[in-house]
């Protein structure tokens, strides 16, 4: 059987890297770049993606992989549904691969109910694929769509690492619940450490220095992790705001306020980065980078 034609929207860092995997395996990958920046267009072209109008994308794609900021997930699904032909000779399916809550996933799935378009809930755990590394696409579907889940797992032949989520109670929304749980821990820990670095420095620079030395003495693994996780978080902070809000919705109750607070933290970091780009003081970013530099010096025995 020949490789399928898929759509990947959008051509961000993750979407373009996923598309590159697929095109490298012989797949045709469509996208829609309406309103996108020149940088995004260049990234898409480099990945071998073909820019087509939305009706053509909907008519030609056997699979649509939605890989977007969480706030755009529901609107794009509705836009695709509106463009999809009433009848298709192809077996067509939509996979939501976004960092959204199970509640949001179920709203998206409801858009396709009775439409003839299949739906798979997929949660990507890990960074963009690259040589020697692949993130995992955890995938789930309604129990009656077990065959569709098998078909999605079949994309493993074309470079994706797919892990179907089956077992007691598993259905649409559970892959996203897994993604929320994992990101709530991994990105939550980064947010917590970032919050306390900024709070310590706000008390006094001496407090921040003492924090470095105490972590080095009693929690060296945490300090080592800070030196890598905080710098890589900075350019991603804007994307993590919506993800923290989705995690808050998933957790619910008073505990959900934990990740609402982290969403505000990542907004704060995003504002500081914008200040830096505009030549402003960018105090928070300076504090975080300075803390990391000092931590590296202490770990290396230079301070």
Description of the structure:
56% of the residues lie in helices and 12% in strands. It contains twelve helices and eight strands. It has helices spanning 13-24, 38-46, 54-60, 73-83, 102-112, 146-153, 174-203, 205-218, 220-233, 237-251, 257-277, 283-299; strands spanning 5-9, 28-31, 50-51, 63-66, 93-96, 118-125, 136-140, 161-164. The chain has an eight-stranded mixed sheet with strand order 3-2-1-4-5-6-7-8, with helices on both faces. β5, α5 and β6 (118-125) form a beta-alpha-beta unit. The longest helix is centred in the middle third of the chain and has 30 residues, at 174-203. The radius of gyration is 21 Å and the shape is elongated. The N and C termini lie far apart (62 Å). This is 6-phosphogluconate dehydrogenase. InterPro entries: 6-PGluconate_DH-like_C_sf, 6PGD_dom2, 6PGDH_NADP-bd, NAD(P)-bd_dom_sf, Pgluconate_DH_NAD-bd_C. Residues 6-132 form the 6-phosphogluconate dehydrogenase NADP-binding domain.
Q: What structural keywords apply?
A:
56% helix, 8-stranded mixed sheet, elongated, 12 helices, 303 residues
Give me a quick take on this structure:
The protein has helices spanning about 15-25, 40-45, 55-60, 75-85, 100-110, 145-155, 175-205, 205-220, 220-235, 235-250, 255-275, 285-300; strands at about 5-10, 30, 50, 65, 95, 120-125, 135-140, 160-165. With about 300 residues, the protein is α/β, with parallel strands linked by helices. It is elongated.
């Amino acid at each position: 059987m020949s490789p399928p034609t898929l759509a990947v929207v959008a051509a961000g860092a993750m979407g373009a890297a996923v598309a590159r995997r697929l095109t490298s395996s012989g797949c045709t990958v469509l996208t829609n770049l309406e309103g996108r920046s020149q940088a995004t267009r260049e990234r898409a072209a480099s990945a071998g993606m073909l820019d087509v109008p939305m009706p053509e994308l909907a008519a030609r794609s056997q699979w649509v992989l939605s890989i977007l900021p969480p706030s755009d997930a529901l609107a794009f699904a509705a836009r695709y549904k509106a463009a999809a032909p009433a009848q298709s000779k192809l077996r067509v399916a939509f996979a939501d691969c976004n960092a959204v809550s199970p509640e949001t996933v179920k709203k998206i799935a409801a858009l396709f109910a009775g439409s003839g378009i299949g739906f798979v809930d997929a949660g990507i755990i890990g960074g963009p694929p690259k040589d020697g590394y692949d993130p995992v696409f955890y995938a789930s579907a309604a129990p009656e769509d077990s065959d569709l889940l098998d078909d999605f797992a079949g994309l493993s032949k074309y470079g994706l690492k797919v892990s179907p989520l089956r077992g007691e109670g598993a259905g649409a929304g559970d892959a996203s619940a897994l993604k929320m749980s994992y990101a709530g821990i991994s990105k939550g820990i980064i947010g917590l450490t970032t919050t306390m670095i900024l709070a310590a420095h706000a008390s006094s620079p001496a407090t921040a220095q003492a924090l470095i030395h105490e972590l080095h003495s009693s929690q060296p693994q945490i300090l080592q992790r800070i030196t890598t996780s905080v710098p890589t978080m900075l350019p991603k902070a804007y994307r993590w705001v919506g993800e923290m809000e989705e995690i808050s919705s998933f957790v619910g109750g008073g505990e959900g306020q934990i990740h609402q607070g982290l969403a505000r933290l990542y907004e704060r970091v995003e504002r500081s980065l914008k200040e830096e780009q505009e030549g402003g003081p960018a105090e928070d970013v300076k504090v975080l980078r300075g803390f990391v530099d000092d931590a590296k010096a202490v770990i290396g025995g230079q301070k």
